[in-house]
Structure formats: C-alpha cells, structure tokens
Write a structure and sequence with these properties.
24 helices, 33 strands, 7-stranded antiparallel beta sheet, globular, 811 residues
C-alpha cells in the first residue's frame, strides 16, 4: 500500500468511520448505514415465474448515499468495501459494487484495531457471491412467506385484531415454542409433598451442616422430579410420598433417636469452563448477570466493537485465533501464574457445520487484552460491564479446570437415612477469574462440610418439615428462548434479538417479570398456522432451511434450486403454492380446549370461557398458563348477578364482578363501575372499600404552588393523580384511596420534570439543538425533525456525539 495511494473505505456504520480513519493515512471512510437497497415495500418484488428474480432497488431515503459514493469513487485509487463479515454484509458489499464501474476489493475484519484493519487492507479478496446468494435466498423466502401468509391472517383473524397481524418463517416458529410451553402450563397438575431437613453438628465443633432425608424404613423418599407434570401422584409407586402427617411422625421419630454415621465417601471431581462467547451465549449470560435484554446486549456490544474493544459480535463460532490464544495466555500468566495455564490451548467445537456469521468467538480485541478499569474512561458503564464479562469468559476458557473434593456422608437415625454433601476446593482453576462475580451454580460448589470421622458423635440442632409442591413448566425468558432457538437451529445470531422484538411489537407476546407470555391473539395465530400450514411453520423445516442457506454459501446448492423447492414443494412438503389452496377453519384457530366441558374462545372483545352455556370473561392480565379449573370456577362465580357484597350509602346493591380489565365493583341498577386496586384479593373487598371506590375521584387537597385541587382516581391505564392539566400515574399496586397529599404532590412534580427536555448541545454541522425527550414509548433523542428511541440506553450516559450518530444512522 503506497503512501501516495488514495483509499476509499466503505463500512456499514458511521460509528466505525472515525476509528478506522485514525488507523489509515490518506483514506476517506464513508458509511452505507446498513442496507441501502431492498425489495419494494408495497409489492412482493419476487418474480416467481421468472426464476424468482428479485426486484432490488435503492431505498427512496438512501439516494444521498449513492451520490456520495459516486463522488468519492472519482477521487480514489483503491476502493475497499469493508462491510460486516457475515452474509448480510456480503450482500451490502455486492450492492455497493453494483453502483461502481471501477475495480473494487472486499476487505474483512472481525475487530477494529489498527493491526486488524491494516492486515485486512493488505489481504483483500473478491466478493463471495455464494454468500450473497444465500442472503438473497433468505430475503426472498422471508418476503414470500410474509406476502402470502400474512394476508391469510388479515382475512381470517381480523375480528380479534384488526391491525399488525403477520406470519414469519422464523418468527412464527419461535412463537410456537412459547405457545406450546403455555399450553403445558395450563395442563399442569400440582402435587404436594414434604421433605425433611436437619441442622447437624459434630459434638466437639460449633459449625453446623445440613442433611436431607433420603429414605425411611427402607423406602426411598419422593422428590419433586418423581412426579409427572400432567398427572396426580408419583411416576414410581415404590417411592415413599410423605404427607403432613407422615412428616410429623418421621420428625418425632428422628428427635427420639441417636445419630450414627453409616459411611463417608470422598472423591475428587472437577468443573471445566464454558467456551468463549457466541452471540447466543453472550445474550444469555448478560441477561442472567445484568438483566439485559438481547436487544440491549447487542446495542452495547455494537458500541464496543465499533470502538475497537471487542471482536465482531454476530457469530456462532467458539473458535479463538492464534492472536487471541496468545493474548489470553499472557494475561493469565501475568495475573494468575503458570499453574492456571493448561499444557495446550483449550479448543471448543462449534455447534454448526458452517459458522457463517463470523469466524471467531466474541473476545476482547487486539493482541493484548486490556483490564476493564483501564478503558472505563473511554466507555459507558454498560459497555464496561459487558466488556468485563467478555474478557472473563475468554480468559476462563483458556484456564485449567477447577478441582474439588466432593464428600457425601450417610447418617442413620432410627428408621431414617439422611445424606449430607459438601465440596472443598483444592484448586480454583478458571473460577479464579470469576471470584468477584460467581454464578449461582459456581457459588453452590464451594460449600464445605466440617471435619467428620466415622466415630464422630453427631447431634441435631433443628429439624424442619417442609411442605413443597411441584412447579409448572417454566415460561421462557428472552435468554432461555434464544438458547432454545439456537439448540433447535431456528434463526441465526443476527436475527435472535429482532425476532423477540417483533413478537412483542405484534402483541403476540407480553414481557412480564422477564418472562415471555403468549397472548390469546398469539395463540390464535399459532393455532391457525399449526392447523393448516404445519409443514412450513415447524422447527424441523425452519432449521432445515437454515442448513440449505448454509449450503448455498458453501456452493453446495443454488438460489434457484432452494427457492423452487420451497415454493413448489417436494415429496414430504406440499410447497407454498399448494398450501395456500387450503380452506381455513377460523373457529378452530380461535378455540383452546381446556377440558371435556370447557373451552376458551378468542373473540372480538378478548378471550372468554364457554362453560355450562354461559360466557365468562377472562381479564387481560390472566393468561392461558394460569387458567386452571379452580381459577375458571372463581371467575365464573364473580360474574353472577347475585354476587352482592353490600349497598352503596344504604341504596343500590354493590356487585363484585370481573371483566376484561380485571375485577371491579358495580352498582346493580345504575351500572356505575370502579376498578379494584391490583393486588387486592377478592375476599378483601369490603362494602366500605367498594363504596369508597365508587365515590372516586377523591380530593386530596390543594397544590401548594397553584392552589388547584389534587384528585386521585382510576383510569383506563390504572390509578393516577390529577392537578389541573397534569396527570401523573401511580404504581399499579397503589390505591387512590390511600395515597397521601404529600406523595401526590411529589408524583406531579416528577411528572413535570420528566417531560422537560434535556439539551445535550448543538450539532456542529446542522447547528440544530440535540435534546433528549420523553414520550409515550419512553425516552428518545431528537433534533426537532428526526426522533430516535433510546430504549436500552442509560439516559445519563448518552453523549452529544452518540446522539448525533444515532440521528445520522436513522434512515
């Protein structure tokens, strides 16, 4: 590369341009800002009769980039396309090349460091059109699915949701995982059992340890996993099920007998580190450690990548380069010593045959890894936490296993056998790197038992009989769903976050306490696709399609052959054209069978239970997985006209009822209604509470500054206080009946402050003020014309420069 040579480097993100420009002299670096060409918005854009030719065109709002590109090309001696190292990036590179008549070179780097960028420029290559074809095939298939099956949903299910219905090749299969889990929760039958735990001590020591009852009178004690999820009773009737009475009997027997040590067994065991991060495992760990959503994790990782702190963050590879292995070895040697280094580097196998998204795991960038403390001044707190997580995972993957001595002690007491277990760490190994942030599993490893011999005298200090119950199948969190999708081959690293976002945006799923819960609309959509198009919308087909796309990228298949098979079918698959001929059973899609006599119907005004010839409304905050027969009976009783709880000021009867928005009280004749505060049990709703609720709004007093009345009441979105034109929401669990004037004044004050914009400064180019405002959907940055959501950002950490970049990236 000559010093006089003028380079034009084209990247995807504007955030990369400054970083790369610092490393390369005499270079102009411009950004495409992602895709600038795509299929048309208002038509399918796929000519099925003409070998599935795609009508790819420049997006209307991206024509300025084409103008800039052509102007820069005229000034350049070498044109280097440095879009992201995945199939989407390769497709963007091909689109850029199609606009340039001169020779172009494709450069690829998975980290933005000076060494990596300079090396990439020296080792340019041609565009990989097999990878481009794989991206085109993926886009064409997704477009055909969207444009052919979404209209089916519009026509058939518009009565339950009149906007936003859509089907997606991957989206719909991911939704089905959630729906199947919710149906399993609905079928779940709870079993109750008891366990017995004792606190023990060796007579000459004060330290106590725990032991659990494992058998009684020769019978093994039943535990939670000995019960089926969907039936009452044990799977194995030879086990002993302890109920409350039996627990008392065993406790009394234990208290009256002496302890004997039946055996002590100690054996060495070990624990190995997990592989370096892929996109999926990074999202899972960031969720578990920091509560980050997959979307936030990817936004934070993107910043770290663009600033040159980590390697490319969309990858399904667990491989580490020679440079990374050397950097890991040096860091471990310097910080922990040679005893923590294995004889040879630890190698991990990727789960996929073709790690198409990138060729290395996510790791700290460069040939020397930096301590988090040394880079905190350059990055935000979220970036610092994620960098530390990535560094620790990378280092741990290249350290020796942790070593333990596991000890099991069997203790006899009359007819009872108890077991105590503990571990002693003999060598920390990779866990040394996690000492400040151990996971739950790792913390459990370090519980040790006191010194005990076969002839030790054991005493008990406490005996607990614990009532337990089996738990329903756990709902998926975002991290759990990403893990499940990866394990089943559904989607790719670059799609996980977007799929989850789309499911929530479409109102097929709600997020509640980190759990993803399918709505009844989501269930109806899933059942329709399952009833009529199962051969297309199933995990086997979706995973198989990903393999076919990989085959295209490896030159083992072609765009045309994959599209023809997808559309026209094969032996065990009818194909899109044939599937569309099927007649749709709308009623079946909108019905969920609960039992022989009970069905849930999904209608225009929400779900309801069809039971004994009557319809029972299901509140919108009650989901299928929570609707057992007991709950349905409870709802049914509350919708009877004779459910009278008192009178209103000695006049009309007050009824306790339940509707779409939850339980409420109603005057029998005038039909005046008032919602019951969330968290209030139905049996706690008294005549006085009901009368007070029906008397709302409640005047709390005067505002000290304006003299206006402050009122507290309920609205469509929950409890709130009102002063003049200002409304301020209360917590959903708070009540207008109990809020104080002081707390109401504070809510109103906070509401005013919340909507006063934060001015970050002026854009040097446009001279416009850049501000952070708060709207209905959360905080956003604006220049007065463009608005960009700040969801996933810590508002206090957003700088003027970042805000300008976000606005520039918006199409």
């Amino acid at each position: 590369m000559s010093n006089q040579e003028k380079l034009l480097i084209i990247v995807e993100s504007p955030s990369k341009t400054k970083t790369i420009a610092k490393y390369i002299d005499n270079a102009s670096v411009i950004a495409s800002v992602g895709h600038f060409k795509d299929l048309p918005k208002k038509e399918m854009g796929i000519d099925i009769e003409n070998d599935f030719a795609m009508k790819i065109q420049t997006m209307p709002d991206r024509k300025k980039f084409i103008t800039q590109l052509k102007a820069e090309v005229k000034l350049a001696d070498r044109i280097l396309i440095a879009t992201d190292p995945d199939r989407e990036g390769e497709a963007i590179a091909a689109d850029i090349a199609s606009e340039i008549k001169q020779d172009i070179e494709r450069v690829e780097f998975t980290e933005i460091t000076k060494t990596a960028v300079q090396s990439a420029i020296k080792n340019s290559r041609d565009i990989n059109y097999d990878l481009v074809d794989a991206q085109r095939a993926r886009r064409a298939i997704d477009r055909i699915v969207g444009f052919t099956f979404s209209p089916v949903l519009w026509k058939t299910l518009r009565s339950i949701k009149n906007t936003g219905l859509s089907a997606g090749r991957v989206q719909s299969v991911a939704l089905r995982l959630l729906v199947d889990r919710e149906k399993d929760r609905n079928k779940f039958i709870k079993n109750i059992f008891y366990s017995i735990e004792v606190d023990l001590k060796e007579e000459s020591h004060s330290e106590t340890f725990k032991a659990k009852l494992v058998s009684y009178d020769g019978q093994t004690i039943a535990k939670g996993d000995d019960f089926g999820k969907f039936a009452s009773g044990l799977k194995n009737d030879k086990l002993l099920l302890i109920d409350g009475e039996k627990a008392k009997e065993i406790k009394a027997d234990t208290e009256g007998n002496n302890w004997e040590i039946s055996g002590i067994e100690s054996k060495p065991t070990s624990s190995s580190a997990a592989p370096p991060f892929t996109t999926s495992t990074l999202q899972q760990d960031a969720s578990r450690r920091f509560g980050y959503s997959p979307k936030k994790t990817m936004m934070v990782a993107q910043k770290l990548y663009e600033q040159g702190f980590i390697t490319y963050m969309r990858t399904d590879s667990t491989n580490l380069s020679k440079e990374a292995l050397a950097a890991s070895k040096k860091f471990i040697l310097d910080k922990f010593g040679k005893d923590f280094l294995p004889d040879s580097s630890n190698v991990y196998k990727s789960k996929v045959a073709n790690a198409q998204e990138a060729h290395e795991a996510i790791r700290p960038a460069g040939t020397t890894f930096q301590e988090p403390a040394k880079i905190l001044s350059s990055i935000g707190s979220d970036e610092g936490k994620l960098y530390g997580l990535i560094l620790n995972r990378t280092l741990a993957s290249q350290m020796k296993p942790a070593q333990y001595i596991r000890t099991n002690i069997a203790l006899k007491n009359g007819k009872s056998m108890y077991k105590a277990s503990g571990n002693i760490t003999t060598f920390k190994g990779y866990t040394a790197v996690y000492e400040q942030a151990l996971s739950r599993n790792q913390k459990a490893i370090v519980t040790a038992l006191p010194p005990i011999e076969n002839n030790s005298k054991i005493l008990h200090t406490n005996i607990d009989t614990l009532e337990k119950n089996t738990t329903p199948p756990r709902r998926f969190s975002e991290a759990m769903l990403v893990k499940e999708m990866e394990a089943r081959g559904i989607g790719r690293p670059s799609t996980y976050s977007a799929i989850l976002d789309k499911l929530v945006k479409k109102e097929y799923v709600v997020k509640q306490n980190k759990s993803l819960i399918p709505t009844f609309v989501g269930i109806a959509v899933t059942q329709l696709l399952e009833n009529h198009y199962l051969s297309l919308f199933n995990e086997k087909f979706t995973a198989g399609m990903e393999q076919q796309l990989d085959a295209i990228s490896r030159s083992e298949s072609t765009y045309l052959s994959v599209l023809q098979e997808f559309y026209n079918g094969k032996e065990d698959y009818a194909g899109v054209a044939k599937l569309l001929e099927e007649e749709i059973d709308i009623a079946k899609a909108c019905t969920v069978n609960i039992s022989e006599k009970t069905n849930i119907r999904i209608g225009k005004f929400g779900p309801y239970v069809e039971k004994d010839g009557t319809n029972v409304t299901i509140p919108q905050d009650l989901f299928l997985g929570d609707l057992n027969q007991e709950q349905i009976d409870k709802l049914s009783s509350m919708q009877k006209e004779d459910n009278i709880i008192g009178t209103f000021n000695g006049g009309e009867n007050i009824l306790l009822k339940v509707g779409r928005y939850g339980p409420y009280v109603e005057l029998q004749e005038s039909k005046k209604r008032a919602s019951i505060p969330k968290g209030t049990a139905n049996e706690d709703v008294t005549e006085k509470m009901a009368s007070d609720l029906l008397s709302l709004p409640k005047t709390l007093g005067k505002h000290p500054d304006t003299g206006e009345d402050i009122l507290a009441t309920f609205g469509p979105y929950g409890p709130y206080v009102k002063c003049g034109k200002i409304n301020a929401s209360m917590k959903s669990t708070d009540s207008p009946l109990t809020i104080s004037l002081e707390d109401a004044i504070k809510l109103i004050k906070d509401r005013k402050l919340k909507f006063e914009p934060t001015i970050l400064g002026s854009d040097p180019k446009t001279k416009k003020d850049i501000a952070i405002k708060r709207g209905r959907f959360g905080p956003y940055v604006t220049d007065g014309k463009k608005n960009v959501s700040l969801k996933g950002y810590t508002i206090e950490d957003v700088t003027l420069e970042e805000a300008i970049t976000l606005l520039a990236e918006k199409k």
